[in-house]
Amino acid sequence: MAYNLKEVVANKPARFTSGHRMCAGCGAPVVGRMILRALKNEDHAVICNATGCMEVSTFIYPYTSWTDSFIHTAFECAGATLSGVEAAYKAMKRQDKLSGTTTKFIAFGGDGGTYDIGIQSLSGAMERGHDMVYVCYDNGAYMNTGIQRSSATPKFADTTTSPAGKVIPGKMQSRKDLTQIMVAHHLPYVAQTIAINNFKDLYEKSEKAIYTEGPCFLNVLAPCPRGWGYATEDLMKINKLAVETCYWPLYEVIEGRYVVNYKPAKKLPVEEFLKPQKRFKHMFQPGNEWMIEEFQKEVDNRWEELLKLEEATKDIAVNE
Q1: Which uninterrupted H or E stretch holds 30?
Q2: Residues 231-263 pLDDT 10s
Q3: CA torsion, points 50, 221, 298, 144, in degrees to nearest 10?
Q4: How far, in Å, CA of 16 to CA of 95, rounded?
Q5: CATH number attached to the domain at 5-312
Q6: Distance of CA 274 to the CA centre of its chain
Q7: Which of 30, 77, 108, 255 has a CB 3.0–4.6 Å from the CB of 195, allowing a cystine?
């Protein structure tokens, strides 16, 4: 896709406006703003937002940061709520009760409302085949309610419900791979991308997801300065390290074919990603080297598995 990113994207009117109350250095508002820029100017959107940081900080009645139609729904209901709106829209179209503007349907949820509490309604919406996009802004914990661990929290991370101590060194379970779970739903388009550091990747995947017919899913890493413990000005640095260490690979699955969008020329050791974050500081204490080694092994295994999937599916024909 050949275009000037600045001319095509940056000059579009913001559909997620400034004035919200998200924390400085948070990745989530960047996710919302860039994804909505992928909408065509003439199209309308219905946004459904599960309870979480993004919802409570962008829609405080009577103020809103959303210029399109917006629905706040309960933690567990984003998939179900938006699929119901999409079904009603289709029914009204069939009855000639709507005409003119094209409407797109986009849900946003954090990892708590997506990986955990909302996975049942998300899975149902995807399986039923609703024409919608579900976006998970993944900050790796329940940040809005006090930094409790979620199934998206990486192993050994220190959270308020998995505190690192002398007996238990943080969360002891591996991070759930929700992107692969969504691939297993046999969706036409699934992608993993990042909030900042590669706007072109985020924009292009958002555009594909929004304008691919059927249910689509985007998993977007959205670092949290409070929960991760990094300086607010280091958002771009953290994102870059997540990609360069292959902790968070950039890839898409188009009708079953895996495409890895970025392969580091020199893959960095994962400790480069862990070091700037206070939630992992205990891993660098003497005697805890085994934690870094175990973390590295998991990252390496998942990366190698992804490369094998790309090779195994390279001959699948897709409509792009």
Answers
A1: helix 28-37
A2: 999 999 999 999 999 999 999 999 999 999 999
A3: -40
A4: 32
A5: 3.40.50.970
A6: 20
A7: 30
